[in-house]
Amino acid sequence: MDRVKLATLWLGGCSGCHMSFLDLDEWLVELAARADVVFSPVVDIKQYPEQVDVALIEGAVCNEEHLEIVRRVRARTRIVVSFGDCAVTGNVTAMRNVLGKAEPVLQRAYLEAADEHPQIPAEPGIVPPLLDRVVPVHAVIPVDHYLPGCPPPADRIRALLEALLDGREPGLTGEQIKFG
Ligand code: SF4
Fold first, then answer.
1. What is the pLDDT of residues 133-162, one digit of tens each?
2. Residues in contact with ligand 1 (CB, 6 Å cut-off)
3. What's the pLDDT band for 37 if we cut at 50, 70, 90?
């Protein structure tokens, strides 16, 4: 593969998966020799570009903005990876599903638990409405590969990226497919 256009996205997650990505340490220099980061929370690019080769999506799909983003990513990306347990299963982010819908979650967080000025944030076009249920990425778009772990350790991320850069199937097995 020529230089790879790589994207990373941060949806409903804690950013721990991106922290683990940064734990690739010196291998990031090797990665930079083979890939261009064309969209990511760690670079200042506002629009998701066309013809991306690989996208790592951290986090579950929690709000309407996430829905829009993952659909755009799928339309513009050759290989989509669910990056971390929240993307793969919903994980911690989906714990709010036990409350049933978005409304009781907002009530609990912003009204009942507020010490001062209880108010549910609402600003059309700025604060995206929550979905009633948090769902994993593959519930919205087809996903090509899954990278479990909370977060996936750096050597697991490296194994997947090396395979994709070499045009091989990642074929992760054993410890590489552990959750948590
Ligand atoms: S999988 Fe774990 S580390 Fe990654 S976003 Fe979810 S909670 Fe954070």
1. 999 999 999 999 999 999 999 999 999 999
2. 13-14, 16-17, 58-59, 84-86, 91-92, 150-151
3. very high
- Domain of 54, CATH number, reads 3.40.50.700
| Inside any domain, residue 151 | yes
Report H helices in the chain: 16-22, 27-34, 64-76, 85-89, 102-106, 154-165
Confidence of residue 89 (pLDDT cuts 50, 70, 90): very high
For residue 122, being part of any structural domain is answered with no
Global pTM value: 0.95
Domain total of the chain = 1
Task: Evaluate if residue 103 carries a pLDDT over 70.
Answer: yes
Residue 12 Cα: closest atom of ligand 1? 5
Dist. CA 91 → ligand 1 center (Å) = 8
Burial environment of residue 102 by CB neighbours within 10 A (0 to 12, 13 to 18, 19 or more): middle
DSSP lists the bridge partners of residue 57 as: 9, 82
- Cα–Cα distance, 49 to 38 (Å, whole number): 7
Does residue 13 lie within any of the structural domains? yes
